[in-house]
Amino acid sequence: MKDSTIISNKKSLNKFVIILFWVAVWQILHLFIGRDIYVPSPFSVVMRLKELIFLKVFWTSIAFSIYRVIIGLFLSITLGIIVGVISSMNRYVYDLIHPLMTAIKATPVLSFIILALIWLSSSNVPIFICFLMCFPIIWTNVVTGISNVDKKLLEMAKVYGVKRLTVIKKIYLPSIIPYLSAACITSLGLGWKVSVAAEVLSHPRNAIGSHLYSAKVYLDSSELFAWTLVVILLSLLFERILAGFIGKLTYRKTTKGSAVLDKGCVKIEATD
Amino acid sequence: MKLQIKNVYKNYENFQVLNDFNMELSSNGIHCLFGPSGCGKTTLLNILAGLSTADQGDIKGIENKTFSYIFQEDRLLPWATVEENIFLILTDSYSKREAQGLMDKYLDLVDLSKFKNYYPEALSGGMRQRVSIARAFAYEGDILLMDEPFKGLHMELKKTLMDYLISYWHQKKQLFLFVTHDVEEALYMADHIHIFQGPPMELTKKLTIDIPAGDARNKNEKIDQFKEMLVHSNKGKLRL
Ligand SMILES: Nc1ncnc2c1ncn2[C@@H]1O[C@H](COP(=O)(O)OP(=O)(O)OP(=O)(O)O)[C@@H](O)[C@H]1O
Ligand SMILES: [Mg+2]
């Protein structure tokens, strides 16, 4: 948001030019360092990617990694909302849950991954880690969203005898959605990263992380870069899809025709 | 039936707004609360409407009554259109058909029929205030509370709305309670003008005007005397 206001008066660079610039930087870096094992050339990475996409295991790995992220996110979003709502309704529950969330946020992901490796089967570790990292974000934003509901609107509804269910639907929900959607977008990005990290250590059979691990074992930098590229692209793709979906929920048209985003561009800190 | 407010106390931390406050109102008249900014008028209305509780004291005559309340701020849902805002408060009390009828009637009254589908943010302050007025009228509560209802509206519309209120009052003969800083407004509509000082809020004077509300008062000498009194009543502390 801020960036766009700073540069909005200038013509923005063509996306293609931006990509070209950074690929050139990469290529120069590659030439400068001169060893494929440290920085492979963009060309060799693309070639490796081209080889990969014809392999069945490439697609099954992607499919299973996506599946794990989705399950992890689904769990964290549903439970985050449920526990968030309960914590907002009951002060004691909030007091009990709050320190737990703070602790989870402050704990290094690796500690959890190692612990999960002991507890769970390799395929479930990434799901659990994704859930564990995203749950506090969802919870925090749900609680903040609920506590930021405009009291004056609630009073208005009370005077006019509006029923509880209507108040929830028409006042609470619209106030919370901006917070929840911000939390979902952050969780999506974070979920991908931690879930792949967990896969690297737990190496389940079909997983992007397992390929990253074998790239490390064989010191195959092109493969490492190729798979990393896949993760980045998938993450961007999903963010687009989610943003589009959320946009449908919160964008609205005024009769004057301008699209307005509901206020509440909520910033949340991500724990890496 | 009377509305009786007896020995009411209300403190915000250590700040006394109502300190042994007493007042009695006939519950079928148009009453104006007139007093300097910060003296506790809104606080009193909120206590009557049940939004805020008095620390101590007794209020009689509002049991089981419903309220229409024009708040000092517009209190519109920013994510709902004008129509949805009004519909929100009607949906649980009226059938869909009745609600639609009420909504159309009152949006027309405040001259906003064309803006039904606008979001509050695309409306001017005065327009939002009108939506808030339409909402309160549409609900048709037993008691009408109005906190500076006509601020930001131009003379013509203000007069239309005041005339409407007066004729509406003649149908219902209910308790209308309105806060204003505008002497003309007070003198045009009110049967009783209660003049306060504070905080803590204190009734200093009560004017009863026995000329029918509305245009009949326009060229009346007696009104000029009242005007004189009102303007001087708060030692120049009035915000006009
Ligand atoms: N929530 C609150 N917390 C603390 N003090 C408050 C609160 N609400 C009101 N007050 C204090 O109570 C006093 C009365 O406030 P109130 O809003 O009733 O005034 P008012 O007569 O309606 O004034 P105005 O004409 O400016 O609207 C004020 O001095 C204000 O400082
Ligand atoms: Mg006030």
Describe the structure.
- The complex is a heterodimer of chains A (272) and B (240).
- Chain A has 272 residues and is mostly helical.
- Chain A folds into 2 domains: 1-34; 42-271, MetI-like (MetI-like fold, Orthogonal Bundle), CATH 1.10.3720.10.
- Helix content of chain A is 77%, strand content 2%.
- Chain A is built from 11 helices and 2 strands; from the N terminus they run H-H-H-H-H-H-H-H-H-H-H-E-E.
- Chain A has a two-stranded antiparallel ribbon.
- In chain A, a hairpin with a 5-residue loop joins strand 1 (251-253) and strand 2.
- Chain A is globular.
- Chain A starts with a helix and ends in an 11-residue tail after the last strand.
- Residues 1-5 and 253-272 of chain A have low confidence and may be disordered.
- Chain B has 240 residues and is of the alpha/beta class.
- Chain B has one domain (3-235): 3-Layer(aba) Sandwich (Rossmann fold), CATH 3.40.50.300.
- Chain B has helices at 41-49, 82-90, 96-109, 125-139, 155-172, 183-189, 221-233, and strands spanning 2-12, 15-26, 30-34, 56-60, 67-70, 143-147, 175-179, 192-197, 202-208.
- In chain B, helix 2 packs across helix 3 (96-109) and helix 3 packs across helix 4 (125-139).
- The model of chain B is unreliable at 236-240 (pLDDT under 50).
- Chain A binds chain B through residues 152-153, 155-163, 166, 170-171, 174, 252, 254-256, 260, 262-263, and chain B through 49-51, 66-69, 71, 73, 75, 77-80, 84, 88-89, 91-93, 115, 117-119, 121-122, 135, 139, 141.
- Adenosine-5'-triphosphate binds next to strand 2 and helix 1 of chain B.
